[in-house]
Amino acid sequence: MLRFRIHLAHLALLGSIIGLASPVQAAGLANIQGKGQFKLAFSTAQPPLINQNGAAFEGFATELLSIIGKQMKVSTITWRKVGTPEALMQGLRSGNYDAVIDSQLPQPLSDVTLSKPLACTGGVILARPGGPTYDNELKGKRVAVVTGSSYFYYVRNLPFEKQVNVFNDDDQALLAFLTGKMDALVMDRYAALKMFKAAGAKVIQVSPLLWSQDITLVMNRSSGTELSANNEVLGPVNIALKKMLADGSYTALSKKYFGQDVRCVL
């Protein structure tokens, strides 16, 4: 099975801007603790990972970072939803919030600092129990994908015969699957797990990841001073995350939202 790993952000060299002063200074841990507030933002609503429901923000990422924030001695985590991933990054550069998390950030990113992966998404196969689990098992199958998506190109480029059926969105693809017109869907892991949790193991199965994409906390960095400040924040984030991964609390939280552990596995 084809496997490859996509990192959410590829760090560019600082080049000629090293040493230049930045108009926006990163918030170090002492600053965040002093304010009692860690300001976070996202753009892509992707339940059950993260979503806005009226004035409330909910999902795995919000609860995970709330727990991590308490371990960092930060009393409040605030969230903001921004219209587009591009606007999200502009707001980060302008200091409107301390960090962002999103699965659709524009690539490549430069002058950022990343946490360790908070979770992993990517492409999976959704099928009936006993159906295709790995990409080579899609040979000769009727496969549903959303038009113009990375999943469409992935299935189209598999080196064997299969029937690729294109739909406008996941809901239409799922309907075709549930009515028996499709053998499998190739789609985002979180969307598939949301359907799996609703329908149950007697109706559908979700494959292991066909490819993996890291979901990380991203902080702005445009000077050596800000790198140090970022490390003051992301270091404790990584320590708290490592503790949760080891003591079972990450697994319990992940199963609450997804029905399975969504940690990144090399």
TrEMBL record:
Residues 1-26 form the signal peptide. This is Amino acid ABC transporter substrate-binding protein. Transmembrane segments: none annotated. It comes from Deinococcus psychrotolerans. Keywords: Signal. It comes from the Bacteria. Residues 37-261 form the Solute-binding protein family 3/N-terminal domain.
